[in-house]
Automatic annotation (TrEMBL), chains A, B:
It comes from Acetobacterium fimetarium. Residues 9-346 form the Isopropylmalate dehydrogenase-like domain. SMART domains: Iso_dh. Keywords: Oxidoreductase. This is Isocitrate/isopropylmalate dehydrogenase family protein.
């Protein structure tokens, strides 16, 4: 429990591309909101450099050892997007830093809220974050020139803990409904295990209704304006969570608008769900990158470490700025305002609520 | 080449639930359109019973041996939906009959067109249909009570042939654009192989533009009304094809409106992409099931066996009936018309174009 803690260390990881630009803005907002407790030494913001693609390429690791050691000295982490090397890039084919961090810090619950009140959308996704199709990283097998094999891994414990987290939240929030999404009609062994686990756990939550759908038809159901508001809390194996949350975020304004909480027993990490947009930086437009998503992630971080009230203030300020943005007056994307100006505007709104 | 053939055998497989109801209607439409060539003996419609869940359960096989032998005497197959057993069902946990048929008859290309002219949507999906996450069927491993493993299998040949089919179509149709969808940033070995194969093949089609996206963001891009019309021909590994085509069909009116062609070197099978809706039958409403999707599939079959003109006539008739349907005058779903009445209406429209 964070409330009882004398000191909370928040790691701030810039990442690649636009990451350092937008993360700096989110950091300013955190400093603004937490200034008193920072002065008192209860909150320590620790900037962790070095999770750059150049460093990762140099040591051939998704997370350099010294960075990982530093991350482990933090209680919670705010992380900017990192670049995942792909073919044709100048870097070796190392694993995604996100994916590695989730696994190394055992951040098993990836919680992604998507809310569009005017459309009746209020979804909270609980994405399993350490196993499934992501379990083995890049350790698939090229058996020979013709044949490649990857593995999907599902464990009982790994399934149980994310499903319980989803049911706990469904009960606590009074939403009382959990939708389990798998492809258990085809991926019978692993997804079947996940679905079985959900059915077993549901029995301990008589007040929570459970239903289940396959991922293919779920992507259609989210589009269906008349019926999608029936979904409240969704729990999914890693890959389906990855897929469905991007689609869901689109109804809210795109992946640029969604924050993502990666929560484990010991650590928690909060990030934007969009990419590092390296081209914006090479074209000299890094300062125009939209910090909205990572500031939202900072809000989730505040809530997680027990600053409920400040988290709510920030949420409200972001909603106001979001409205403002829709009027195309001030936004990184549409009017040429910088990320800094946007953060200033958020802080101004926080000062005069 | 079908044009040169003296005799073409069309297998008609009813399947389960509403399958036999709607398949019978599609068969009537085929008989109507092909009546002359049926009389001449050039076309033989062969009804294949026995692909029912009861029979499959009795022999514990996704496709009973005698049914498979009969299927192999056909050139093309029109197939109604089949029920895939799931936990809690009274049947053993046998594999999906669709999935098994695609593999047994080596129907490697699952072609799914989605077209909504008024929304600028004209997508043709080329879904790899025999490998990927579907390759091993239900043969995953329960290592112990805690640990379950599934396998994803990608071969060079399996990738090449579907990617070539997509590029060939893009060129032939003049659409000249192929979008490759993978999750190669995470599923590096198998999806990486698929993406590499696409890049290599693209070099042989200089007039066809290729781009590639990850499946997560693709589900968002299909929602984006301003930009989705940029997509023309899409090629995807099995699971992503499964997922994205359900979402795509939703913009056209739901999975009930889309037909699906499963094409191999020797055989081809055409089906509705919706399920068998067994409840409609147990509730005595089987005759009200909407045959629209399987009649569309019959149209794809006609085109495949060289009856281009008749396929176009049927397409036009379906478009007219579709409009009629929107006026809520005659539709299985909205006004209580039966599937038979709908098929009658399609044939009437065909007679008075
Ligand atoms: C960047 C990528 C590795 C990552 C994922 O696949 O999990 C991203 O899409 C996400 O959803 O956080
Ligand atoms: C019924 C199911 C096994 C099948 C699939 O997963 O391929 C269906 O969703 C489809 O798209 O044809």
């Amino acid at each position: 429990d964070f409330k009882a803690k004398d000191k909370i260390v928040i790691g701030v990881v810039g990442g690649d591309g636009i990451g350092p630009f937008i993360t700096a803005e989110a950091q300013r907002v955190l400093e603004f909101l937490l200034s008193e407790d920072i002065k008192k030494g209860r909150i320590v913001l620790k900037v962790i450099d070095g999770l750059t693609i150049e460093n990762r390429a140099a040591c051939g690791k998704a997370i350099p050892d010294d960075v990982l050691a530093e991350l482990k000295t933090c209680d919670v982490i705010l992380k900017g997007p990192t670049t995942t090397p792909r073919e044709g890039d100048p870097w070796p084919n190392i694993e995604s830093a996100n994916v590695a961090m989730r696994r190394e810090l055992d951040l098993f619950a990836n919680v992604r809220p998507v809310s569009v009140p005017e459309k009746g959308i209020d979804w909270t996704f609980y994405r399993e974050n350490t196993e499934g199709a992501y379990a083995i990283g890049s350790k698939g097998i090229h058996v020979n020139d013709d044949l490649a094999i990857d593995f999907t891994v599902t464990t009982q414990e790994g399934s149980d803990r994310i499903i319980k987290a989803a049911f706990d939240y469904a009960r606590k929030s009074g939403k009382n409904k959990v939708t389990v999404v798998t492809k258990a009609n085809v991926i019978k062994t692993t997804d079947g295990k996940f679905l079985d686990a959900a059915k077993a756990i549901a029995k301990n939550y008589p007040e929570v209704e459970m239903d289940d759908w396959y991922i293919d038809i779920m992507t259609a159901k989210l589009v269906d304006e008349k019926r999608r508001s029936q979904f409240k809390v969704l729990v999914l194996p890693n890959l389906y969570g990855d897929i469905l949350t991007d689609e869901a975020a689109e109804f809210q304004g795109g992946v640029g608008t969604a924050g993502s909480a990666n929560i484990g027993k010991q650590y928690a990490m909060f990030e934007a769900i969009h990419g590092s947009a390296p081209r914006m930086v090479t074209e000299g437009r890094g300062q125009y990158a939209d910090p909205c998503s990572i500031i939202r992630a900072a809000g989730m971080l505040l809530e997680h470490i027990g600053y409920q009230e400040k988290a709510e203030m920030l949420q409200k300020a972001l909603d106001i700025c979001g409205l403002y943005e829709k009027k195309l007056v001030l936004t990184g994307r549409d009017t040429g305002a910088t990320g800094s100006e946007y953060a200033d505007y958020v802080m101004e709104t926080l000062s005069h609520p």
